[in-house]
Amino acid sequence: MNPTPQTAHAASRVLCVALNPAIDQTVEITHLRVGSVNRATRAQQDAGGKGVNVASCLADYGVPTAVVALLGAENPALFESLFASKGVVNRSIYLDGATRINIKLVEPAGQETTDINLPGPYLDSVQITGRIAQILDLIGELSGSLQWLVLSGSLPPGWPVDTYAILIHHARSLGVRTLLDTSGAPFGEALKAGPDIVKPNRDELAAHLGRPLHDSVDTLSAAHDLLAAHAGLGKVVVSMGSEGAILISRDAAVLAQPLKVAASSSVGAGDAMVAGLIAAELQALPLAETAQLATAFAAGKLSRLGPHLPVPSEVQALARQVVISALG
Predict the structure, then answer these.
(1) How many CB atoms lie within 10 A of CB 238?
(2) What's the fold here for domain 14-326?
(3) Which residue of 35, 172, 222, 285 has the smallest Cβ count within 10 Å?
């Protein structure tokens, strides 16, 4: 028997879509030696996947959030426990089989993470069409209070490349704004549907535009090109790792310097930044303050294993430390 999802609360302001969730099995190793026996210093399992991470971080900040994840009915307990503990409304779709497992080998000293991602449940084309219809219905059901739809991560194998575009079109028709964080062909298709915000990293943006982006000057130019090419797009946010992040809107552009924090794991830092962008939009913050809050979310996540943030007051204190530079 499939588990029964929670009933949605009418006050959910954000719906996070997690089509490709995973159980993140994080293993800390002093130094990874390929082909040898490695002794772990610690290990933990967390409900993960980009959309799940975003929902978890938003909930930590006090934002009323719902999530629709495709969960294997054989092993949903970690996800259900996370959602229940944080007050995330669980509208997940339960599939036959098990949710995939992602193994993350973390070397803290070098701040390096090696990922081994396993496959998840298989759906045929008829089943996929049915699941997309369920998500469209859910967006309509929640649209009375819903302000943002967050589409994060890769599509599962076999899903149509325009899946995110379909969801964006539907959300726009209902007056719900959208943030897109994906890559490759799904990113290109979804851009045509007019998301409000996109958050590629520099490599993903370079791949989409078909040209190398060597530095922040190239990246700023590329972000402007993306904004100019898509009339419905309101903001482009490009994360650049240790070089920070560039945020541009129709009338401003800023560079946010990263904060230096003791990092437990880099896993999910980009997802935390997405959550910070949504939190800032809900507060109608100007671009510079949006950049500060999004960077603080990412920094707060770096200090923790799993999809968790410090308490909101600590995140806000981090935000005040973020250095912002105006760009031409």
Answers:
(1) 26
(2) UDP-N-acetylmuramoyl-L-alanine:D-glutamate ligase (3.40.1190)
(3) 35
pLDDT digits (tens, 9 = 90+) for 3-13: 333 444 448 99
Q: How many helices (H) and strands (E) does the chain have?
A: 10, 15
pLDDT of residue 306: 75
Residue 37 to residue 40: CA distance in whole angstroms: 10
Catalytic (active site) residue 181: no
Q: What is the pLDDT of residue 264?
A: 62
| Alpha-carbon torsion angle 275, 277, 281, 284, nearest 10 | 130
User: 24, 46, 162, 271: which one is catalytic?
Assistant: 271
In Å, what is the CA distance from 175 to each residue of 152, 164, 195, 196, 264? 20, 16, 12, 11, 39
Report which residue type is found at 263: A
Burial class (CB in 10 A: 0-12, 13-18, 19+), 1: exposed
pLDDT score of 172 more than 80: yes
Report CA dihedral (216, 273, 182, 27) to the nearest 10 degrees.
110
